[in-house]
Write a structure and sequence with these properties.
globular; alpha+beta; disordered N terminus; single chain; C-type_lectin/snaclec_domain; about 200 residues; two-stranded antiparallel sheet
């Protein structure tokens, strides 16, 4: 709202014409001084407060907020950290979201075994994959790696995304031991952030 009012104020007070590559004001010097003061006022209003839809450290995409936690912890501790921040481990609802997340975390992975936890587990019932909100995995929307999930030694009950090269890069879900320490992706709805002074 402040931006709209300032923009209207400046447009009303300053009319410009473009002649021979230079902008020339048609207003009097007195009006120009008034306009310059108005621009300074607008700048001050904008810089005084910045409103964040997600909150500091979060990144907005598609109406959701994501926090890419590079601290390595277990799946349960990663989830607890996400919840402390007002979200939860990420639930992936579309191919587009998977594409965004995979491309986003690729640059944070040092190698092909530098994983990120997501909010998918079959800890309660083997083979029944549930998201952290309790909803079952949509079997028509999965991104398992080849031969995964394999439940290695009957203990891999939590899911990570890993770095995959080539055109199959989206198929990067891998079941892992929940006690292993990896990075994680947190998620919460957009619009739950706050305004901060700058």
């Amino acid at each position: 709202q402040k931006y709209s009012l300032c923009a209207l104020f400046i447009r009303t007070c300053s009319t410009q014409s473009h002649q021979q590559g230079q902008f020339q004001y048609k207003k009097t010097q007195t009006i120009l001084i008034f306009v310059n003061y108005g621009e300074m006022l607008c700048s001050h209003l904008f810089k005084a407060q910045t409103c964040l839809k997600c909150g500091a450290g979060w990144e907005e995409h598609g109406g959701k907020c994501y926090y890419f936690n590079t601290n390595r912890t277990s799946w349960s501790d990663s989830r607890a950290s996400c919840r402390d921040l007002g979200g939860d481990l990420v639930k992936i609802d579309s191919r587009e979201e998977q594409d965004f997340l995979v491309k986003r975390v690729r640059g944070m992975m040092r190698n092909e075994v530098d994983f990120f936890w997501i909010g998918l587990t079959d800890s309660e019932t083997e083979g029944r994959w549930l998201w952290v909100d309790g909803s079952p995995l949509n079997e028509s929307l999965t991104f398992w790696m080849k031969f995964e999930p394999d439940d290695w030694k009957n203990h891999e009950n939590c899911v990570t995304v890993r770095k995959i090269e080539g055109h199959e890069y989206l198929k990067c879900w891998n079941d892992q031991y929940c006690s292993f320490f990896y990075k994680s992706i947190c998620e919460k709805p957009a619009g739950t952030g706050s305004c901060v002074s700058v």
